[in-house]
Amino acid sequence: MPAPFHSPMPAPSHSPMPVPEPAPTMTAPTLITAARTLSAAVDAMRFGAPVTHVYNPLDYAWAIHHRYLERFGEGRKRVIFVGMNPGPFGMAQIGVPFGEIASARDWLGLEGAVGQPAQPNPKRPVEGFACPRSEVSGQRLWGLFRTRFGTPEAFFAAHFVANYCPLAFFEGGRNLTPDKLATAEQRPLLAACDAHLRTLVATLRPEWVIGIGNWAEKRATEALADLPGLRFGRILHPSPASPAANRGWAEAATRQLVELGVWQD
């Protein structure tokens, strides 16, 4: 959605006045429109074996995702953190990036009803905020931000968190990441996700884009390579599948961000 145009009032000829500051850009509506566009694009895609089920939380958990963008996507952000795609017990449940239930509900203040995916996976049911499982990656990520900034408002004043790809892929009960898809299936998916990321960055105008893990950094670097002045980095992915992440992830990620110059010690 384009930002509204406000024409400044002309100054009287006998009393020059300073030119007023332009009206603040309304970024959240643009992010909401971009997410809708991405959702429609990926809904039209089909994926073969070994993929058995595909979840698009931008569809069935749209109300919560919309609320996340509306509440936290307003204004320019200095840093955008980019993850890979929804985890089965986080964003796949409630539509919030790295959406560990307790963090999203108790810290971000998000709640509400969630629908069902078009083809539910009986081995990975969607239970929304009633999901009894905890996404460790989200618990670690939002836990770090809560410890460092205290309130969501303080964190989101200069930061934003997004996932590169909105889809969760499953082979039965096993989670499949987008990099494991067939090349022919990856190509249109990556093109749609690249376009969305470019819109996100053009709207929020960050100084830094930080990949959460190697693959997210690689995709961000390739998608945004021609944008001048943008700086890239990465932090260790907080997944419990990573032995390094199980040895003081918050301290390691903080150290990486300080060394990059994103945060101050």
Automatic annotation (TrEMBL):
One of its GO terms (biological process) is base-excision repair. SUPFAM superfamilies: Uracil-DNA glycosylase-like (SSF52141). GO terms for molecular function: DNA binding; oxidized pyrimidine nucleobase lesion DNA N-glycosylase activity; single-strand selective uracil DNA N-glycosylase activity. Residues 1-23 have a biased composition (Pro residues). Residues 1-26 are annotated as: Disordered. Keywords: DNA damage, DNA repair, DNA-binding, Hydrolase. The keyword DNA damage applies. It holds the Pfam family UDG. InterPro entries: SMUG1, Uracil-DNA_glycosylase-like, Uracil-DNA_glycosylase-like_sf. The keyword Hydrolase applies. Residues 73-243 form the Uracil-DNA glycosylase-like domain. Signal peptide: none annotated. Coiled coil: none annotated. Belongs to the uracil-DNA glycosylase (UDG) superfamily. SMUG1 family. PANTHER family: SINGLE-STRAND SELECTIVE MONOFUNCTIONAL URACIL DNA GLYCOSYLASE. This is Uracil-DNA glycosylase, family 3. It comes from Thauera chlorobenzoica.
